[in-house]
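agent> Task received from the user: take the single chain below, predict its 3D structure, and emit structure tokens. No templates, no multimer pairing.
agent> Plan: (1) validate residues, (2) run structure prediction, (3) serialize to tokens, (4) report one or two observations.
agent> Step 1 OK, no nonstandard residues flagged.
tool_call: predict_structure(input=
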Amino acid sequence: MPLLEIRDLEARYGKAVALESVTLDVHPGEFVGVLGPNGAGKTTLLKAISRTVMSTGTLTFDGHALGACEPHQVVALGICHCPEGRHLFPELTVRKNLELGAYLNRSRRAMAADLEHVFALFPILRERLGQIAGTLSGGQQQFLAIARALMGRPKLLLLDEPSVGIAHKLKIEIFDAIQTIAASGVAVLMAEQDAQNTLRVAGRAYVLENGRIARAGTSAELAGDDHIRRIYLGL
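)
tool_result: status=success, residues=235
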């Protein structure tokens, strides 16, 4: 049974249609990619799930209807959103940013365990705990943004363009870390333009074009699709 079920999702900005008749599923512990060019609706899709953008259609998470939820209620249900651009608290330390990610869980013991978990994924964060977040490199800030979302103990992690503006070496580290997160049992829905790396690490993917699902399948199926190979993989 899917953890996240989306049926006929539609979203608009004024008269402009951002999403139209979008239907997709994410199962527990599954890593699903959402590919598409700028303006395809990827960010709007994630914002609709986290309820920071209004939409119509059916959104169900772990048996709960999300349509009437406020964003903080969505987080409490187990969905954590790591947005494009990271949106850290740049004037606060790395530690404070991580602790704010765990604001629904005040247990010191649980927070300490969660910190150890994110340090295992991103060891550099342990070394930078007292550093002001805004002074980190772009790649380190992305590590911190993902780690902060994990501090909320999500059942579903939403990631929006985690590789944008990141050097190639760190980009590979980020994709590999996300694959490890999914392997640990956390479901991941990741919006990305980097089709090659997304199809390398995700189990399935959807392709959004002009606000609609244009393709869907396993990563292996999409990697062999002539349209995907030509448009997204440059082959």
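agent> Step 4: summary for the user.
The chain has two domains: 1-78+154-174+186-235, 86-153.
agent> Done.
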